[in-house]
């Protein structure tokens, strides 16, 4: 007799595990299938994000920033430190401990909420049946009233730079270096490339980032992207725009990278090369040919606004569907789907999904960019406040960057918040909360913000939208 569940979730990443927990909380008999195995050879929940993505990269970013601060940032505070060194294996071990703690935490949450955890590879068959292939190769069929596909994504591989065991690596391999490479190449100037490039740059590597596009951080607001490029260049990241990698060759444990840019064909040699050109949906062996679920030409599972696939009772969430590949977007989709299965009228506001790059300074944004609004022909006002004018940022010796707020010229409704600087992600979240409630810039300007705080910069940017900023000169109205 096959097992029967109200909800079967395929994948235990930030989309899948959250969907499973929420479904169980709503009284639905729920199972979650996951095949990922951790370093200890046991099933590890949490998906890419917890195991080889958001969490471990943040651990290394924080460790490397502390090292950089000890080396170069303490002196201004009157702290004398001599002979600071970085024990890379210890840094990596700390990262692994955090990962193990969090993946174990998900397992405990499954237990607490009554979710049945199943180890193996899940494949959707016709009639809402799921085939599970266990690690020892046995198969069993599970029946479900509802199926949620949350299989996530994997790094894109490119023909000019095929991965090797330890010289040409993807984002996962870049988290496992046991020593600092002298020269490091990074293909891809997006979120992952910049974060990983920053980690090893701070620890002493000479880093070159190859970005095929002419525009730096094309998805971000142009003013913020320009500020970011200036800052990263000052930090020693060499960002080459319009640089297309055409080939790689490994010689004497080094990699020769051939690329073309505005100066023609060139070559550079590195000790390590990270390929970080994006991610693609992980749908290998996920769908039986007769299961009825449709994929588009890019291998993305087709869903509607509520994450329903073309098969009633089958849903897909996270990196396998349209939209940004972000853990928090996947989680909220998981909650929405679980609640809809339970008969609630849940929906998700896709216009207010924040984006964050965890470099230093952080870069974050929510809503529309100035270039998007220009293209749409929307009239808007802009308020900008630099952290250089923030007392709290000065006290912290962290004055790089700015807060930018964009509001509708007619209604004053906030349309976008863009930050590069200290606590950027937290400030943008304040903007997202305001925007969710339809706030105007004036609303934010009329609120009392505690002093001195980083968030006063958001307050001042809101005031600046209408020419009322106190701690910076206002732009004259045109």
From TrEMBL:
It comes from the Bacteria. Keywords: Cytoplasm, Disulfide bond, FAD, Flavoprotein, NAD, Nucleotide-binding, Oxidoreductase, Redox-active center. Its EC number is 1.8.1.4. FAD binds at residues 58, 122, 319, 325-328. Coiled coil: none annotated. GO terms for cellular component: cytoplasm. The keyword Flavoprotein applies. Its cofactor is FAD. GO terms for molecular function: dihydrolipoyl dehydrogenase (NADH) activity; flavin adenine dinucleotide binding. Residues 353-462 form the Pyridine nucleotide-disulphide oxidoreductase dimerisation domain. Belongs to the class-I pyridine nucleotide-disulfide oxidoreductase family. The active site is a redox-active disulfide bond. Homodimer. This is Dihydrolipoyl dehydrogenase. It comes from Pseudomonas jilinensis.
């Amino acid at each position: 007799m096959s097992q029967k569940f109200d909800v079967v979730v395929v994948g235990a990443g930030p989309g899948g595990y959250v969907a499973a927990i929420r479904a169980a909380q709503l009284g639905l008999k729920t199972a979650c299938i996951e095949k990922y195995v951790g370093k200890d050879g046991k099933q590890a929940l949490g998906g890419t994000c917890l195991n080889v993505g958001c969490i471990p990269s943040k651990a290394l970013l924080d460790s490397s920033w502390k090292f950089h601060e000890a080396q170069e940032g303490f002196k201004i505070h009157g702290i004398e430190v001599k002979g600071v060194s970085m024990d890379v294996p210890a840094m990596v071990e700390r990262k692994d401990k955090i990962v193990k703690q969090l993946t174990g935490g998900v397992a405990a949450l499954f237990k607490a909420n009554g979710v049945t955890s199943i180890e193996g590879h899940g494949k959707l068959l016709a009639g809402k049946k799921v085939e599970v292939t266990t690690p020892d190769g046995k198969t069993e069929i599970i029946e479900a009233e509802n199926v949620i596909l949350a299989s996530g994504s994997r790094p894109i591989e490119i023909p000019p730079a095929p991965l090797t065991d330890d010289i040409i690596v993807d984002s996962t391999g870049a988290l496992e270096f046991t020593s600092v490479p002298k020269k490091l190449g990074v293909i891809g100037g997006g979120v992952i490339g910049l974060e990983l490039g920053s980690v090893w740059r701070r620890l002493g590597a000479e880093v070159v980032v190859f970005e095929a596009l002419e525009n730096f951080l094309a998805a971000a607001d142009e003013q913020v992207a320009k500020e970011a490029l200036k800052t990263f260049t000052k930090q020693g990241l060499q960002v080459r725009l319009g640089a297309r990698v055409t080939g790689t060759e490994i010689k004497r444990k080094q990699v020769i990278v051939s690329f073309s840019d505005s100066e023609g064909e060139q070559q550079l040699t590195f000790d390590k090369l990270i390929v970080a050109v994006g991610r693609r949906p992980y749908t290998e062996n996920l769908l039986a040919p007769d299961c009825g679920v449709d994929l588009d030409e890019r291998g993305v599972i087709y869903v509607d606004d509520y994450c329903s696939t073309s098969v009633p009772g089958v849903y897909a969430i996270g990196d396998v569907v349209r939209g940004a590949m972000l853990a928090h977007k996947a989680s909220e989709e998981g909650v929405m789907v679980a609640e809809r299965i339970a008969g609630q009228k849940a929906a998700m506001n896709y216009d207010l999904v924040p984006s964050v790059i965890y470099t230093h300074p952080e870069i974050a944004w929510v809503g529309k960019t100035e270039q998007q609004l220009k293209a749409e022909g929307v009239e808007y006002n802009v308020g900008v406040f630099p952290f250089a004018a923030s007392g709290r940022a000065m006290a912290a010796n962290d004055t790089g960057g700015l807060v930018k707020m964009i509001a509708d010229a007619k209604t004053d409704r906030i349309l976008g918040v863009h930050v590069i600087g200290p606590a950027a992600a937290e400030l943008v979240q304040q903007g997202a909360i305001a925007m969710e409630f339809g706030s105007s810039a004036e609303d934010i300007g009329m609120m009392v913000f505690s002093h001195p705080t980083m968030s006063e910069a958001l307050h001042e940017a809101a005031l600046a939208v209408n020419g009322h900023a106190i701690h910076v000169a206002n732009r004259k109205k045109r």
